[in-house]
Design goal:
about 325 residues; Tyrosyl-Transfer RNA Synthetase; 3-stranded parallel sheet; Rossmann fold; binds tryptophanyl-5'AMP; mainly alpha; 2 domains
Length: about 325
């Protein structure tokens, strides 16, 4: 196995969507043969919003089951829960002292919340990109597979690493983002201008990994389209159809021009049926396997316990190096 490393994570703030699958997990599965991969359930990131404790616990375990059911091998990869490895929080504090307010002010997710006039924003929402940088740098990661919306955070992580290395000499590997060519930003089915999101108020806009075939069919049939009546990829004029094409392409591997040809003169009804069918078949094995895994609580515990142990072993040398460089007195 190559020594090159990958870190990526998803926060358990909602049920996983087709967007999380296509934008992130699908690539994780493909990359697991080439890299030493750490795939994390980033529960510490989830508490920037208020969660019902039971729901957060349930979602974290479901997410773990869904990672494995998607094809991530828990022996080959390190699959674990972020709060089980306290080194993330330790490094995050340190990196916060090497992050600039101006940089955090520019993060679009934070800026969006401010511009929407959201009140009672907590400090975690503001500093969360620093925790994300700590997640990545703790493991000297080479590559970070994410969807488009997280690219800015990976770029900030690079800037923090470069700054720290500049002051203290080579300490952190500077990582690269890995964003898929197709499917980096899956849109909501009901509002194709915005992202398909775990925490969308309108569940009709998102397809969830655990949705039944019937739910998937209904959601795709109701997806917003247009009056053009042709299946062409044009995100300006036909955002809804382009989104469905992206989903269909990711599920079947077909290129956009092949899809256009396939549905020439056939109308949106036929296209939507084909999209729904492809998504149902894509998600069916994942849903079934997730249910099986979730029923085996001992197996889940074994995965996250051994994952956390292996992750902590990899994290420790980085943290040791960092505190030495900073001038902290070594632990006795
Ligand atoms: P999160 O939990 O919002 O999303 C998890 C991953 O799924 C991708 N994604 C999408 N991709 C395409 N289309 C969509 N509609 C869509 N929705 C979600 C996201 O880009 C992401 O890759 N801060 C991160 C979690 C995180 C992390 C990290 C990621 C914490 N530490 C370190 C990478 C490395 C987040 O909130 O992702």
């Amino acid at each position: 196995m190559s020594e090159k490393r990958i870190f990526s994570g998803i926060k358990p703030t909602g049920d996983l969507t087709l967007g999380s699958y296509i934008g992130a997990i699908k690539n994780w599965v493909e990359l697991q043969n080439e890299y030493l991969c750490l795939y994390c359930i980033v529960d510490m990131h989830a508490i920037t919003i208020r969660n019902d404790p039971e729901t957060l616990r349930r979602r974290s375990l479901e997410q773990l089951a869904q990672y494995v059911a998607s094809g991530l091998d828990p022996e080959r990869n390190i699959i674990y829960i972020q709060s089980h490895v306290p080194q993330h929080a330790e490094l995050s504090w340190i990196l916060g002292c090497y992050s600039m307010l101006g940089e955090l002010n520019r993060m679009t997710q934070y800026k969006d919340k401010v511009s929407k006039g959201e009140e009672n924003l907590n400090a975690g929402i503001y500093t969360y990109p620093v925790l994300m940088a700590a997640d990545i740098l703790l493991y000297q990661s080479d590559l970070v597979p994410v969807g488009e919306d997280q690219k800015q955070h990976v770029e900030l992580c690079r800037d923090i690493a470069i700054r720290f290395n500049h002051v203290y000499g080579e300490t952190f590997k500077v990582p690269e983002p890995f964003v898929p060519k197709v499917g980096a930003r899956i849109k909501s089915l009901t509002d194709p201008e915005s992202k398909m999101s775990k925490s969308d108020d309108d569940p009709q806009g998102s397809i969830f990994i655990m949705d039944s075939p019937d739910q998937i069919l209904k959601k795709v049939k109701r997806a917003v389209t247009d009056m053009e009546n042709r299946v062409t990829f044009d995100t300006e004029k036909q955002p809804g159809i382009s989104n469905l094409m992206t989903i269909y392409s990711s599920a079947t591997g077909k290129d956009f021009d092949v899809i256009t040809e396939e549905f020439e003169g056939k109308g949106y009804g036929a296209f939507k049926n084909a999209v729904a069918e492809a998504v149902i078949e894509l998600l069916r094995p994942i849903r079934e396997k997730s249910e099986e895994i979730l029923a085996d609580r001992a197996y889940l515990t074994e995965i996250y316990t051994s994952g956390a142990k292996r992750a902590a072993e990899l994290a420790e040398p980085t943290l040791k190096l960092v505190v030495e460089k900073l001038g902290f007195v070594p632990r006795g």
